[in-house]
Write a structure and sequence with these properties.
CATH architecture: Up-down Bundle
Radius of gyration: 23 Å
Largest sheet: none
CATH class: Mainly Alpha
Number of domains: 1
Shape: globular
Number of strands: 0
CATH topology: Growth Hormone, Chain: A
Number of helices: 22
Distance between the termini: 31 Å
């Protein structure tokens, strides 16, 4: 019998039960007969705790590469506009091209993950996005740039759903806030380091050099992920003690949902709390994508900065966002829940407060001073990104077995649909008014809708009962029998 099966079947001995208590941090190890034995077990458990955090680090590196691929287009806005003679509206369309495929494939990617698994879907995705970076670097016209960005969206579409699903497999419930915030925070950290780094590359080697740079990084990550990632049940580097700790701590069960793809999606869409997170996450997504695609352009056109200076100023809000998400969205949330505070109340309170602070974007709409504008944007972005890690973790709590990928796909579809809307709407608002003021005010209005959604629709974090939705057909009969 394989050791994971022995763990699941309750045949693991007392040493593993002691391991769980020690790793959990809430009970002292018992049943040891000597100091020598105590030292040995502590040594084993220190080693046992490392594998899942290595997986979290692996996922985090992938997020950094993902966002380098996306940020380089924002940094290269002015050189590309000049080379291809684009208007602000046309540039908005180009900036949104990545999201056309990225958003539309979120739900299919989620269901594919539930059927095929994290390992193979992500392997294929990393290879596709690497090819897309190369194609962008050699593009000779606006049409080819758009085509390559659409291909990039196809390759990167599964990555966040895959990372969230992997986190559900690899981490117990009481560590999941930190685990999700660790990889999700890299989407902000990558912009903090990527904006000045890519600005430097573009300044010295042109906008094509920026894409060759990210293509090279992507090749390295393809190799790293291919040799390193396995699900817990097949990972030979995962110790028995750590596996038991993960499972006993409430990790998501590996396996498929019993129903068909569309029956599962239909079930999820009948749930009120799914819509609560969907609308709130989409509202956050509008501001997120506005900043991600237009922040460098805003600093260049409205505040008259050079590309290099824009890169450094752009880094400040993203650095603030990285720190705030790790400290509040990850560490503080887990700490409060582990102290016995109600999980829903903790997460919902932080969601609402941070969305309210996101309204600070209004301040950026009313100033032409760089320091003041960046301060307001840092407050807004630093608060909003905290809601991201909380929203990403919710599917790992509420989704039925085998539906985490599908639920994440639904949520990220709503969020990333804003990647299509925000750049285009912002571009045409700027083209029509010559200012970013009304673009920022619209983002604030959408945030208000998100706040109301979290307050009134997110009712609990209990796992959903699969048979409670309005299902019809053979799948529903199988589940209910």
């Amino acid at each position: 019998m394989r050791w994971p099966e022995a763990c699941a079947g309750g045949q693991v001995g007392g040493s593993l039960r002691r391991a769980r208590r020690c790793c959990d941090g809430r009970e002292i190890m018992t049943g040891l007969t000597s100091i020598h034995g105590l030292k040995n077990e502590i040594g084993v458990l220190v080693l046992a705790k490392r594998r899942r955090w290595w997986i979290a680090l692996l996922l985090s590196v992938g997020v950094i590469i993902n966002y380098f691929d996306r940020t380089n287009m924002s940094i290269a806005t002015q050189p590309i506009t000049q080379e291809f003679h684009l208007t602000a509206g046309q540039m908005g369309i180009l900036l949104s091209a990545f999201a056309w495929s990225y958003a539309l494939l979120q739900i299919p990617a989620g269901t594919l993950l539930d059927r095929i698994g994290v390992k193979w879907v992500t392997r294929m995705g990393t290879m596709v996005w690497t090819i897309a970076c190369v194609l962008t670097a050699i593009a000779t016209g606006q049409g080819l740039v758009i085509l390559s960005r659409v291909l990039l969206g196809i390759g990167e579409a599964p990555y966040f759903p895959a990372s969230t699903k992997a986190t559900g497999y690899w981490f117990p419930r009481h560590e999941r806030g930190r685990a999700v915030s660790l990889f999700d925070a890299q989407s902000k950290f990558s912009n903090a380091i990527g904006a000045p780094l890519l600005a430097l590359v573009v300044t010295h080697w042109g906008w094509r050099g920026g894409f060759w740079f990210t293509a090279a990084l992507s090749v390295l990550y393809v190799v790293l992920f291919w040799v390193s990632y396995r699900d817990p049940h097949e990972d030979k580097r995962l110790s028995k003690a750590e596996y038991a700790y993960i499972v006993e701590g409430g990790s998501q069960s590996e396996g498929e949902a019993p129903g068909g793809v569309w029956d599962n999606i239909q079930f999820l869409l009948t749930q009120r709390k799914v819509w609560g997170v969907f609308i709130g996450f989409a509202a956050y997504g509008y501001s997120w994508w506005l900043f991600l695609t237009w922040l460098p352009g805003y600093l260049e056109t409205s505040l008259h900065m050079s590309i290099l200076k824009t890169g450094w100023y752009s880094a400040i809000p993203w650095l603030v966002g990285t720190i705030s998400e790790l400290l509040i969205g990850g560490w503080l949330v887990d700490k409060l829940v582990n102290q016995g505070h109600d999980s829903l109340r903790v997460r919902k309170t932080i969601l609402v407060i941070c969305m309210l602070l996101g309204l600070s974007v209004i301040g950026a709409a009313l100033t032409h001073k760089p320091i003041v504008a960046v301060t307001f944007i840092s407050i807004a972005l630093g608060s909003l990104v905290i809601t991201s890690s909380i929203a990403y973790s919710i599917p790992t709590f509420i989704a039925p077995k085998g539906m985490v990928g599908s639920l994440i796909g639904i949520l990220t579809f709503g969020n990333n649909a804003m990647a299509i809307v925000a750049p285009i709407v912002t571009g045409f608002i700027v083209q029509a008014t010559g200012s970013f003021m009304y673009a920022f005010l619209l983002a604030a209005l959408i945030l208000v809708v998100g706040i109301l959604s979290y307050v009134f629709l997110l009712t609990d974090l209990d796992p959903m009962e699969y048979g409670s939705g309005r299902l019809t057909g053979p799948a529903a009969e199988d589940i209910q029998s």
